[in-house]
Amino acid sequence: MKIFSQLILMSIVGTMLVTAAFAEGGIVAEGDGFVVSQQDIADIQAYFSERGFESNEREYVSGALKLFLFAEEAAADGLAAKPDASLSGKEKVERLYKLHKLYASHLMESYPLSKEAIESYFLAYPEKFVNSESLFDEDRKQVYAQDTEKKEWIRNKILAAKKSRLLETEFQRLKEKYHVKLQ
Amino acid sequence: MKKQVLQKQIAIDETATIGNTTWPDQQLKDKFKEYWGYRCDGDADRSFMLEAPYAQEMIFPERYNNFIRGAKDKDWAGIKIVKIEWVTAQLIQVDFYLKYWDNEKIMRDIFFHDSWISMGNQWHHAFKDLFLLPD
């Protein structure tokens, strides 16, 4: 019981020290047109901690870069304005997170998925789309050609499987584009 | 008994014992042989090129590579076709046993319920393994 209490205490102190380190001044990373400060990292850590997510310093820095880069690119693509310079703390993180989600949605919506990919899924999984009792009762090509709702469903299904890879690839591309440097 | 050499490594036995084992056309038979030859060789790059377009989009390449490459060290003995069946006018299922010798030289079977789709006058392997493509 004593050891358990000590472990709890050490964990609390450890979290406080990490938070304190993040809360000090100083630049953590920078890229063309933006800077990620230690205060930003502390604010992001606090924001996600409120929602039950905890991680380590490296992941917070990586997460912060994703938020900033996607926000920059969302603004560059004309999707939305960058966070106002006067924003800070939780409001700034919320705005960055909103822009991140907006840009991520834009990536998914604009991904050039081939019609062959969609059609091949339809053909491979007839049991998911069959309207009649027998799979041979209907002309599958005719069914496919006419049904935009099915095509949309399939597109979403395929992109859901690709999402994490697409976002990671885009993150790597933007790190190069914006010449990101870690301090 | 009909036997053919597959990728210099593995023979296919098409003798009908349970169901129909007649191929719908030569192209599918050739593609099947080619694909499973690559799979038995652990040649993920080549087998991936024969996967249907949806699978090429959805599957994580690294996981696919690891999944396929694990096969190359097995001592493959042959393929026994059990049944070839049309599911729809564009989808065929090929049930077969892939046989191999284990470390104690006992022959083992792995059963496959393999799917192929016809699209644009080409047959494509419809990869459906739940490990790499959860439903």
Overall description:
The complex is a heterodimer of chains A (183) and B (135). Chain A has helices spanning 2-23, 38-50, 57-76, 89-110, 115-124, 140-146, 148-177, and strands at residues 27-31, 34-37, 181-182. Helices cover 68% and strands 6% of the residues of chain A. Chain A is mainly alpha-helical and 183 residues long. Chain A has one domain (2-182): Orthogonal Bundle (Triger factor/SurA peptide-binding fold), CATH 1.10.4030. Chain A starts with a helix and ends with a strand. The model of chain A has no long low-confidence stretch (mean pLDDT 85). Chain A has a three-stranded antiparallel beta sheet with strand order 2-1-3. Chain A is elongated, with a radius of gyration of 23 Å. Chain B is globular and about 45 Å long. Chain B is built from four helices and six strands; from the N terminus they run ββααααββββ. Chain B is 27% helix and 37% strand. In chain B, strands 1-2-3-4-5-6 form a six-stranded mixed beta sheet, covered by helices on one side. Chain B has one domain (3-125): Roll (Nuclear Transport Factor 2, Chain: A), CATH 3.10.450.50. Chain B is α+β, with helices and mostly antiparallel strands and 135 residues long. Classes of the chains: A mainly alpha (183), B alpha+beta (135). The interface between A and B is medium-sized, with 21 and 24 residues.
Note the main attributes of this structure.
heterodimer, A: 183 residues, mainly alpha, Triger factor/SurA peptide-binding fold, 3-stranded antiparallel beta sheet, 7 helices, 68% helix, elongated, B: 135 residues, alpha+beta, Nuclear Transport Factor 2, Chain: A, 6-stranded mixed beta sheet, 4 helices, 6 strands, disordered N terminus
Entry summary:
Chain A is mainly α and 183 residues long.
CATH level 1 class label of chain B:
Alpha Beta
- Please tally the β strands of chain A and state the result: 3
User: Which spans of chain B of ≥5 residues are poorly predicted at pLDDT below 50?
Assistant: 1-8
Characterize the main sheet of chain A.
3 strands, antiparallel
Gross geometry of chain A: elongated
- Beta content of chain B: 35-45%
Average of the residue pLDDT scores of chain B: 87
